[in-house]
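Ticket #4471: structure output looks truncated?

Reporter: J.K.
Steps to reproduce: submitted the chain below (268 residues) through the standard prediction queue, then opened the result file.
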Amino acid sequence: MKIDLYTRCWNDLHMLGFFFRHYDRYVQRYVIFDDGSTDGSCEFLQTHPKVELRTMPPPSDPLSRIASGVAVLESCWQESRGSADWVIVTDIDEHIFHPHDLANYLSACKARGITIIPSLGYEMMAEEFPQGDLLLCRSVTTGARWDGMDKMNIFSPNDVAATNFAPGRHLSEPTGTIVAPASDESLLLHYRHLGFERTFARHALARSRQRPKDLESGWGFQYSWTRNEFREHWGSLLERVVDISNPSVRQSDTRSAERWWDRYRLPT
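Returned output as attached by the reporter:
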């Protein structure tokens, strides 16, 4: 089974080790678009034997960094048609996780004719940024369920004609042969909230890169939070965290609303 992964990188040096330790177990080829990193990320990426490092193309929408980024990730994966069984379209801080084994799960999905695998989003939390050569899905396992982080990160490039992602890729209207699992087992562990001060500072940097349409549309609204607003958000997440490594945490019990991919589910 061959898996290609597509992502963007911008000053993600401290997260790249965690990213590769997680995905090297599954991915045969990475295509990474650098978006102007200045922290040594490019030099680090050039040392990885599976990485094809590319420069972000000129913005498709000069008024929106977010829309331009989505446009890249909507089209780049199409080069994997005919060569990969699955593609993963993700961000550096998004780790796709299966409670048992992701590779075996993907093989089973392929055998059942499943073509898209949306993942249930969790905002993973740590008071301090993790240190050492850790596998985050085993060492930072507390997170808050957040429907807004659900994403279709994994799909078959040979069956999906177009992803039609919304800004942020939280919603999608895929076309082609679209079949989702009967139940949801894949999790999206979003490792953004690793240390309060680090996360708040990174938000400020992201805010400086936003363009007029991003601000007008409220895309990346969290980047504009004051320290007090972000502290309130941080506290609200901490009140809801669960340990995703605990077998008693059943993902099927977390449903709070209809999911956009329900209409594509494989019959039980």
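Triage note (M.O.): checked the attachment and the full token line is present. The chain has a mean pLDDT of 95.
Status: closed, working as intended.
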